[in-house]
Design brief:
By secondary structure, the chain is of the alpha/beta class. The chain has one domain: TIM Barrel, CATH 3.20.20.70. It is built from 15 helices and 15 strands. It has helices at 29-37, 52-55, 68-72, 75-89, 105-115, 149-163, 185-188, 195-208, 223-231, 241-244, 253-261, 284-290, 311-316, 320-328, 352-361; strands at 6-8, 11-13, 17-19, 42-45, 61-62, 65-66, 94-97, 119-122, 141-146, 170-173, 179-180, 214-217, 236-239, 267-270, 278-281. The protein has an eight-stranded parallel β-sheet with strand order 3-13-12-10-9-8-7-4. Helix 4 (75-89) runs parallel beside helix 5. The longest helix has 15 residues, at 75-89.
Length: 363
């Protein structure tokens, strides 16, 4: 079967494949620009943009890390990333992912719009006030990430009442995705929360609000998986982990090596200062954290509101901003390497062009 294009707001994505936003620095200009150029939707992660181009956009560093949310979520860094992605994809649709749980959420959304993003994607919490920050940018499509039909209903009700606006699309993320989950540890394993069982009720809820396109995410790997989601009523899919296995992925070569070496049992759920369980690869860092021997927690970047200025980081045993940025910089000893459940299936690094052909035409 050939896939239909994906319409989101006023934009058309030729191939209904959204590349997941992965931070710190895993999906920046090279990956996002190339995916959009190849007919999918490239997604720039807004997390840790202070680290872009060797932190050259940062006004203040402490211990060689961007100080506070203003520098960690650097407007100058994000603007440069989007500008450089545009050099690759031209005026093709390009999205920016902004986590709801971050400090300075509203500012970063506005920064992304000013930088020229065509779409904003937001997960890690229910973004009930998302339209507030894009009022001056009516053409920017808004895409919340949900994990249930109930969550979508809450967002639609709130947006319609407050802003006379509805989502232009919705991403439904099941519990096999990399990074943070929209479920508790226990809920991640329940049959009713598996993606294949969530798509139908979310598609039905979306239809009540005017056929909002549903994009399925979490554990999708190949053309067969995409076809399965489409058959259930999804209009497209989002894939993150598989794009790490591309030459254009902005991750350090060591990050890609960690995934290439990972076995199925190495990819596990772990605690996170963000307040949601997160999925990543067991490494030297996770062993240290379990023994309470991880690196010192200093909360230099003040990245996420739920962490409460490092309190949750101390409870969990690591600072997520420092450890994700270490992974981006290739530190295998202290880096935190997020991956979806299928990360162990990466066996080679290929081009985004090759991957898109595999995903749309089969292996």
């Amino acid at each position: 079967m050939s896939f239909k294009s994906l319409k989101i707001g006023k934009y058309t994505i030729d191939k209904p494949i959204v590349q997941g936003g992965m931070g710190v620095g895993i999906s920046w200009d090279q990956l996002a620009g190339t995916v959009s150029n190849e007919g999918g939707l490239g997604v720039v992660s807004s997390v840790g943009t202070g680290y872009y181009e060797s932190k050259s956009h940062v006004k203040k560093l402490v211990a060689d890390r961007p100080l506070d949310a203003l520098n960690f979520y650097s407007k100058e860094g994000l603007t440069a990333i989007v500008k450089n992605a545009r050099k690759i994809c031209g005026d093709k649709p390009l999205a920016v992912n902004v986590l709801y749980a971050i400090n300075d959420y509203g500012r970063v959304v506005t920064d992304a719009c000013e930088a020229g993003a065509n779409m904003i994607i937001t997960g890690a919490g229910l973004p009930t006030n998302m339209p507030e920050f894009t009022a001056d940018y009516p053409d920017v499509a808004l895409i919340p990430i949900v994990s249930s039909a109930k969550a979508l209903k809450i967002i639609c009700k709130r947006w319609q009442k407050r802003y006379n606006r509805l989502p232009d699309a919705v991403i439904l993320e099941g519990p096999k995705s990399g990074g943070h989950q929209g479920f508790t540890y226990e809920q991640c394993g329940l049959p009713e929360n598996q993606l294949e069982n969530l798509v139908k009720p979310v598609v039905e809820e979306a239809a009540l609000w005017g056929d909002i396109p549903v994009i399925a995410a979490g554990g999708i790997w190949d053309k067969n998986d995409i076809e399965e989601m489409m058959a259930l009523g999804a209009s497209g899919v989002q894939m993150g982990t598989r794009f790490i296995g591309t030459h254009e992925c902005d991750a350090h070569a060591n990050f890609k090596d960690v995934l290439l070496a990972a076995k199925e049992e190495d990819i596990q759920l772990m605690g996170s200062p963000v307040g949601y369980p997160a999925r990543g690869v067991r490494t030297n860092l996770t062993a240290l954290v379990e023994k309470r021997e991880g690196p010192a927690i200093k909360c230099i970047s003040n990245c996420v509101a739920p962490c409460n200025r490092g309190e949750e980081a101390k409870a969990v045993g690591f600072c997520i901003a420092d450890r994700l940025s270490d992974a981006y910089e290739g530190n295998k000893e202290l880096g935190l390497f997020f991956s979806g459940t299928n990360g162990y299936r990466l066996t080679e690094i290929i081009s985004v062009k090759e991957l898109m052909i595999k995903l749309t035409q089969g292996e």
